[in-house]
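Write out the 3D structure for:
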Amino acid sequence: MSENTTTQNLVEKTVFPILFALSFSHLLNDTIQSLIPAIYPIIKTNYHLSFSQIGLITLTFQLAASLLQPFVGLYTDKKPQPYSLAVGMGFTLVGLVTLSQSQHFYTMLISVSFIGIGSSIFHPEASRMAHAASGGKRGLAQSVFQLGGNAGSSLGPLLAAWIIVPYGQFSVIWFSIIALLAILILSYVGTWYKGFVAARAKKVTIQSVVNKFSRRKVICSVVILLLLIFSKYFYMASLTNYFTFYLINKFHVSVQTSQIYLFVFLFSVAAGTLLGGPIGDKIGRKYVIWASILGTAPFALLLPHASLFWIGVLIVPIGMILASAFSAILVYAQELIPGKVGLVAGLFFGFAFGMGGIGSALLGKLADSTSIEYVFNICAFLPLIGLLTGFLPNIETRKK
């Protein structure tokens, strides 16, 4: 096989081993991150923290994980950094070790900020690498990548119930093994990406989507997409960070039982992740976005009024339907603004993380001043923002 043929295959074919490696690394990365909210019931009791302080821990993590992402994406669009993912995981490793030792509120903030910095480096460039390995199947590639992250997020509460609750905060340090494994895998992925960048430098063209929407239309569409991200991640923040407290407060279940319910929700999110991307590749991403956010509304509105049994039932479709949104939104935005894969990934991942953090802080403050049940009643209306999807253009009709 000639060098030119090899290069062409490198660029045009879907490289599934790399996609799976990125997805598995995403699983490891988000498993570590999910330990932060999973240990909230423990540190709240041990250190007498308020809901507002719990919200500030999440806000610190999410801001560290969000503010840098657009800048990382913008920089790597111009100067790809194949081994930056391994470096980012090094920051996560430092944060994980210090979190296991933290005995004061402010040292916890420092610890989670290191984990957040690692995330801000990981997500935009990993999404960019998934795009590079997609072979044109961008929706599928992002769904595979997101599947790993959501599966990792679902494991945190389960691992917390099995390991951290019985053995205490220090047991968090054992998860540093996960970070070390991720560093090894991401070094391998970096070597592949270095070859991909070299192939692209040899003038091998990559087919891209070209749109002729006006600047005003693009800006309005991006604003709508960000509002949809706001809806999704504010609602996700209520469930990810306060669902266990809601169940403990309303139904008097144990911490372990509440963690299992949280796992069911997050596992449903992981299971639904693969739907959005491939379906969007076939029928159009706008329709997937519409169904995934607005389709959550009926179940979300029922949740605060359901019994414990029906809550266990409702969180499954909520998680599955809501999960399909992000991959479709991200690829839609990348096609809306072609040639800025890293910047768009950084902007949307960063905004999603930021909304999750701000949502957690505001909802924690609201829970302190009212009640955790009131928070869930208010958040049930957030998916109705999905009605804004109707104002998005059908981008598939403008492909060339």
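The CA atoms of residues 163 and 171 lie 7 Å apart.
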